[in-house]
Each structure stands twice: as C-alpha cells, then as structure tokens.
Amino acid sequence: MENEKNDVCTLCPRHCNTDRKAGGIGFCGAADMPFVAKYDLHFFEEPCISGSAGSGAVFFCGCNLSCIFCQNRDINHKNVGIKADVHKLADIMLELQEKGAHNINLVTPTPHSDVIIKAVQKAKTLGLNVPIVYNTNGYECTEIIKALEGIVDIYLPDFKYGEHIIAGRYSAAPDYFSVASRAVKEMYTQCGELQTDENGIAQKGVVIRHLVLPAALDNTRSVLDHIADNYPKTIHISLMSQYVPYVDTEFADLNRKLTKREYERAVDYCNMKGFENVYIQKLSSAKQSYTPDFAKE
C-alpha cells in the first residue's frame, strides 16, 4: 500500500514513489483520490459476469500501463468524471446494487486499491452483499493482491503478454510477464476455480482474459503455454477477438483488426492445450460501439 511515512505511491510494480497527496502525478496519471469516469450496469463482459441484469461497472481513471491500442484511451491517463472518496465510492457501489447489478465490477482499479479496500469495507457495513470483481490489466504487485484477500471475490485479470519484447513495445512494460505471472498466481491462490450460482453468475474465482493481437500468435501461444503449465485445465479463460485499431500506430500490424484465420488458430491452440472452460468471441465483437462512451452522462 502507500508508504505511510512519506505518502509516496507504491501501489503498482512501477513504484513511482510519487506523492499523490501533494499533487504529484505518477506514470498512471491518477490523482490523490479516485476519479470515476463512469459507472452503470454493463452488459459486455463475459456471460458469467454480465448475466441478464448487468455488471455494476465502475470505470476508474488512471492506468499503470500505456497500451498503444487501449480502448479506454479517453480516461487511461487523465482524470475526468466524479472525484470519489471512500464514502462516495461506497455510495456508488450501493447504488449499483440497488439497480440490480450482479456484482460490483472495478475496472482498472490498480492505482486506487488502497481507497477501494476501505470503500468496500464501508459499503458492506451498509448492506453491500454482491460479489466484488477486480477487473485488472494484470500488471499488479503481488503484495497488493495479498492485501485484497477477503475484499475481492472474483479476479478478472488480463494476461496480455508472454514475451517481454512485445510487452515493452506495445505497453511500456517489458517486465509484464514476470510481474503478471506472479500476481495472477496469487489471485488464483486466493479465489481458485470459478464458482457460479444456479443461474451461471460468478460468485467467486478467477477468469483469465487474453486479447489476441494481430500478427502476434506466438505471444498468444506463450501465454497459453504458461497457463497450461501452471493451472488446472479447468481454469476459466476468456480468449478475446475484440481488438479494434482505434488510432493509427507506428506498428503496421496493429492498424487492422484480427483476421478470422488468426483467431481460429488461437482457438485451435487453446483447444490443443486441453483447456475445458474457454469463452470465445465472434469477430463481430470487434466494434467500437462496445466501448463505453465516457463523454455521455
């Protein structure tokens, strides 16, 4: 958590040591308190998360990665929306539960994990009883994940990269694999296999996400190899085809959508590894319309 002696931020693997309470801005761009860009019922997560009533998504500003293909680029390194202290964040969670949300889905929570812990604790004293989903890019400090034990019910981590070169090139995090592999392992140690209710709605456990990128099948294979070597074949995996080129980049491979053949090869490799619980997507999922409009009330 934050260093209580001098208030510098060490919440993520970058350890910027920025004094956010004094107005300092670290790599993530987050302020001293969380900014919530949007919160509402969200229907575009995995079926076990969105269900029929929707997931209570809370989209936080600030991100400790710098993915050049980020779909939330409008908020990932700047602060917009509502400044939410512990009390406001607890109120937001209770409001989403009142709307019928299956869960509280904390999207890009990493820079705010200290506040989130206190907000969840407060909300629970006021009647919050739906599962807490920690929807993360996977680039997490293991000690922070350990601090979330008993707070988080469902971990929904990305596992973006198995290769350090592509991680550095696309997300400015060449150490991504070593960091994420340790963090996701701790998530699994805490929450284990996905558990659902009678309606198929997640109550506890881990779902590992991987976005298949254009011309990067070797990266996908590396990620799936690691999961196969370190987790039961019953682990739930979400193999996503929804990559959308939001802006032209210096990397030509990223300036197009995934091809049908690329995704089919990724699915085939996943099946070959023997995984039993894999969410797959149609290529029609690659639409900007599935990205929240952060400028809309």
Task: Give a written overview of the molecule.
It is built from 8 helices and 10 strands. It has helices at 47-50, 86-98, 113-125, 142-147, 164-171, 176-191, 217-230, 260-272; strands at residues 35-42, 55-60, 82-83, 104-107, 132-136, 154-157, 195-196, 202-211, 236-240, 277-280. Helix 3 links the parallel strand 4 and strand 5. Helix 2 packs across helix 3 and helix 7 runs parallel beside helix 8. The longest helix has 16 residues, at 176-191.
What is the CATH architecture descriptor? Alpha-Beta Barrel
Number of strands: 10
Beta-strand residue percentage: 15-25%
Order of helices and strands: EHEEHEHEHEHHEEHEHE
> What's the story with the biggest beta sheet?
10 strands, mixed
Q: What is the count of structural domains? A: 1
Number of helical elements: 8
Helix content: 25-40%
Contiguous low-pLDDT stretches (5 residues minimum) are none
Structural class: alpha/beta
**Mean pLDDT, nearest integer?**
93
> In the CATH scheme, what's the topology name?
TIM Barrel
Overall body shape: globular
**CA-atom Rg in angstroms:** 18 Å
CATH-defined superfamily: Aldolase class I
